[in-house]
Amino acid sequence: MEVPFNFCGLDTQYSNYDSSKIVILPVPFERTTSWMKGTSNGPDAMIDASRNMELYDIASDSEVYKYGIFTGEAIQAESELTLVEILKKEVKRLHSDGKFVVTLGGEHTVTIGPVSAFSEIYDDLSVVIFDAHSDMRDDYDDNKYSHACVSKRICDIGINPIQIGIRSMDISEKKNICSSNVFFAKDIVNTNDSWIKGMLEKLNKNVYVSIDLDAFDPSVVPSVGTPEPGGLGWYETIKILKAIVSVRNIISFDVVELCPNELKYSDFAAAKLIYTLLSMIFKSNGR
Ligand SMILES: [Mn+2]
Questions:
Q1: pLDDT one-digit tens code per residue, 40-92
Q2: How far is the CA of 67 from the centre of ligand 1 (A)?
Q3: In what order do the strands lie in the sheet with 69-71?
Q4: Alpha carbon 285 to chain centroid, angstroms
Q5: Is the pTM of this model over 0.85?
Q6: Which of 40, 107, 115, 184 fits a disulfide with 147 by CB distance 3.0 to 4.6 angstroms?
Q7: Which domains occur in the chain, in start order?
Q8: 237 CA to centre of ligand 1 in angstroms
Q9: What is the pLDDT of residue 286?
Q10: Residue 143 to residue 62: CA distance in whole angstroms
């Protein structure tokens, strides 16, 4: 029998909308990528890889798919602004239906939609961004909604994001970063974990997490538009996420900037990251 094309390849018992607690929202949006193209193929590649995963999570001793995972239709838009508006509305609708939303990019611009939605739902929202790049330009190629400006747009919403894994930026971004919120890769990778406690103290109760896959070292996830050396390891990243889950309420997250190629292990790492984080979140608060 052919495995259904949805996240985890689930049969209808665990993938129908009504009884699913989790919704996967594919957003194959790509208009502003600057170097290698292909992030529009990211959501399908992650979904495809997820159909080959084991669905028992060892660390949490759980099978999170039993909460039900519905995979939505891909969200399409003609422009960055319409994308943000469409996504914002859709995320609010899913949230009011009691769903936990996981957004799959596409380029990093997609993050602005769910963050806008949740900033109107939670007045104490914190945002944590894993990324190699600070994305704090005011604009890029005269475009305020470029993927290279996503952190700056989140600041404009009124939230200073916590940025983890940064190792590439332009000097013009220096004036825009909030240096106490930035955790550079050089200070994280192969060092002790003492920084994590300070980072957690900066977070309010409700946290949105955005994971640009280029935060990982290219040895873990090579298939990204702009691979930067010196990134986070797999267990290093899981440890940081686990620390956040243990003391705060992750209300939604996204995984963006996968640029699939013949190296399938990036697609699989992205799918496994999503499943691992869902396992942690649902284990911790027994939703
Ligand atoms: Mn990036």
A1: 999 999 999 999 999 999 999 999 999 999 999 999 999 999 999 999 999 99
A2: 31
A3: 69-71, 22-27, 100-105, 249-256, 206-212, 126-130, 162-166, 182-184
A4: 20
A5: yes
A6: 107
A7: 12-285 (3.40.800.10)
A8: 15
A9: 55
A10: 44
